[in-house]
Fold this protein.
Amino acid sequence: MRRLAILLAVAACLHAQSPAPAAGREADELATRMLQLLESTAVAMPGLIEASAPVKQSAQATYSTLQRTPRSPAVIWRFISQMKAYVALADSMPRPEQFPPTAEQQFAELREDVQRMQQYFETVLRGEQQDEQQKEADPNDLRHYAAVNSALGAPGTMPRVVFLGDETTEVWRLNEYFTGRDFVNRGIAGQTTQQMLGRFRQDVLALKPKVVVILAGSADVAAGIDAKQTEDNLATMSDLAKAAGMKTILASVLPVNSYHADQDPKFDMTRTHPPANIAAINRWMEGYCANPAAGCSYLNYHPVVVDTSGMMQTGFSDDGLVPNSKALRAMSPLVLDAVGRALTGLSDAAPDTKKRRLLPGLTK
């Protein structure tokens, strides 16, 4: 018993010295621990399990939401309030004469964890305020590529191609997948077509490419933006490129899946990115580019990334949304073919061997 008491005392000391969680992962671990303490402390007091059942149920539901939106101030505050309600309820109930020291220690830890979560909430809230101020000052994140654009210089003898998009484009290391080419990455994770349109002049037109490949619309679907607005934004970018003498390739919005949702509810991508909405935008793009007057071509990635259920292949994404290196390797020949047609003026017919010889440099 003496040794256990010493260990508990040391653990309490170390816990008290630990800082407030500074990252989402630490906060997630803290929230998980708080739920564990709710379970373990309830059994130490007669009647507390039954009395706290509604609070426990609400806290567990909020925790699930917190998994999907770890930096939502409203969700964090709700979780804190529910844990405070549990502590207040426990304090209002009579304790048995022989109250276990371990339970006393766990209640103390829970109170400290509530304070740590409160500090995390305040940190997130300050960050949200700073983010909002930054978004108000630069809603399209023009600063993201401002410096590298200035250092890029004019195109050389190799025709330049700009890839504009969201996280799928941003994670695509173009210099590794397409060697010996002037392929410029201008993807920003989470951006909508409206934000891309807002930086189109700086991040595309000013770089003077021959071709722009636009992979956009996923964030629009997730944000519930009206499909007509997404279509108008894509059409406007295509028109701007055409007026500048550039070719536009509109790439299909990639499919998603929910195959990893059993690991974490936040990976339920078919809920946040309804496949029907994705399909509607892709049908519009295909029809829009079929009109020669539009001056664009449609690049459909789906044949190489979907499974028999029409979802993103399970091995092609680690979260059900963003394609991994395996998927990007499968997509690379398609984009090379599309860029080759745009640069050489070939038709949208099936690619031939001559065109493939014009486009070396695909990493195996």
